[in-house]
């Protein structure tokens, strides 16, 4: 039996490693990794010790049942008839729940999560590096937008922000690495941070800038309050505050040009909206989203509990908004540009409550575990920063269930699950 356990654990570890490496890089290897990891997880559930069933498992199961039920209702004609690619939309939402069975092996969760995120960063660096090797750095130097989110994957700005924040908030850990890995760790981390900063500027995605600004302001406030409460060497505290201010000023200076070039037209449109109303504003990225959001909110009361179903909404928006000039000529919006509104529109209040409950349980378990585990405590600020950044980003964008982004979502949920569950061999209950 021990040999069987070793085999499925090795298969699970290999599959998860391949999934993490390709999660933000290439979808084909990520699919292979997910399939291998799932085979290993199912074999582990069949032959090895099973983790105790807890509230996260219960909500994840209820959510899977709800998604299946909502899909069945859609097939039965309950929902918006013009939604297309019904099956694809349903599977896209089901994929993220794969994190639950993949968390079957909860030994050494901290080391496992660190390994998976390092592999994801390596895949990110390889993908971005390959893009610059093929396309050159000319567009970057000219201040142009680098392809369509660097051509692939679609969520490159989200990935760059998440990796940058995770490395920035764990700097005390990787800077103090002991032994022969000290300088490779420092050089590698700084190189990835710089690469992420280049992507964040070059991709010119305003949702990522908004998320970084929100997290940066919150973090600066926490650091300032903490510094003022600390007793000790004032010169050191002032030096740290000065360094943080210089870093913030440098970041603003770097982002000033791209932000101004991307927001000037939008600023004028917003001024028109505030002065004369949305109906009189020219169609721009912001006004189009405002009109789409207004339309979607108006449709929510038509199906408040069940939602309108899965699928792309371009035909629905074209039917109901094209006559009102809400969209640019020839433009097709296949989603609502808001993860929260898309969930409410498609899955109703039932889906929103289940997804929110799942997220809150994962975060609650993480906080509870960190209070008992001193090894996990230093990682909590980084985890919360990444979650906050993702949450703000999701206000104005919708890609977390997209086929090109679902592996990053699985990786994020899996990390929360493993870190919040802990190691069942340490004598502490993993049940919630």
Keywords:
globular, 432 residues, single chain
Can you walk me through this structure?
By secondary structure, this protein is mostly helical. 71% of the residues lie in helices and 0% in strands. It contains 17 helices and no strands. Helix 3 runs antiparallel to helix 15, helix 8 runs antiparallel to helix 16 and helix 11 runs antiparallel to helix 16. The chain is globular, with a radius of gyration of 23 Å.
What's this, in brief?
The protein is mainly α and 432 residues long.
Summarize the biggest pleated sheet: none
The number of helices is 17
Helical content (DSSP H or I, runs of 4+):
over 70%
Gross morphology is: globular
From the alpha-carbon coordinates, what is the Rg to the nearest angstrom?
23 Å
Helix and strand topology:
Blueprint: H1 2-22, H2 27-47, H3 55-75, H4 86-94, H5 99-102, H6 109-135, H7 138-141, H8 156-169, H9 171-175, H10 182-203, H11 206-229, H12 234-276, H13 285-299, H14 314-321, H15 339-372, H16 380-396, H17 406-421
